[in-house]
Amino acid sequence: MNGARLRLLAWVMALAAFLAGCTPAVGHLDAVTEQPVPASSAPQAAGDVVAPQPAPSSTPTPAPASAPPEVPAPAPVPQPFALNLYQEGDFVPQYTFDWCVAASIQMAHNLIDDTGGGTWTDSTQQGDLWEMARARSNNSFNGANPLGWAQVLTEAGMGPYTVVSVPDYEDALQTAARAITETGRPVGLVMWSGRHAWVMSGFESLGDPARFPEFPVTGIRVLDPLYPHGSERWGPSPEPNSLLTPEQLATQFVVREPRRWSSDLPTGYMLVLPRAAA
């Protein structure tokens, strides 16, 4: 029996040694070289496949295309411009040497009324208009002055009209041309330093006054009720509807001095000017 026990004990010990040789041991080197577990906020299930992440691109993202710069439109170039209210039959002569204002009122009416059915030419009417203008004037010469002229035009339904004095000659011509363009009505010119009345019925210029704030006036259409007589001092009367250059007009259209008749207006080139209706 002892022999059997010894053999059994030897067999048990051999089996234990065999089993011990099959158990893996974890050493220091194994712990250092162990593969790292991928970091993740969620645990990976068995069999999950982790897709490889693309490497950052080194090609820069193109900037959005900018719109081409706007090219400013070329400034408009002034072109020759002309406006004339005159029609055949609009001219009326003054029937006395005193009635230039009254004749100018009649011509203004004819220029505004283009129907041809209500032309003012009657001498009796001209005398009545002169009395009306004289009654609305206030000066030592006991005649009709530009203030009465403007007031009668307004009261007769052709207004509103007002009297202005412009210090500069070129500015005066532009002011008159602009008023005709805006209102379609003529302008009264106070001639001979306040002694006579003409009507400006139209003009020519370089540039339309409705489009350009500055435009040279190159021609002035005029009606002198004293035609064909004229003046020894100031010169001959131009024919009705004459186109005068600024230089020609300047020989008779001169500044009006305040002492000529009672007025608060300063010295300048005087206009009986139409205004746009309110």
- In terms of structural class, how would the helical and strand content be classed? alpha+beta
The amount of beta strand, in percent, is 15-25%
Helices and strands, in N-to-C order?
HHEHHHEHEEEEHE
Low-pLDDT segments: 17-50
Largest sheet: 7 strands, antiparallel
Quote the average pLDDT.
83
The percentage helix is: 25-40%
Q: Over all CA atoms, what is the radius of gyration?
A: 52 Å
* Shape field: elongated
Number of strands: 7
How many separate helices?
Answer: 7
Distance between the termini: 147 Å
Overview of the molecule:
The chain is built from seven helices and seven strands; from the N terminus they run ααβαααβαββββαβ. The protein has 278 residues and is of the alpha+beta class. Strands 1, 2, 3, 4, 5, 6 and 7 form a seven-stranded antiparallel β-sheet that branches. α4 packs across α5. The radius of gyration is 52 Å and the shape is elongated.
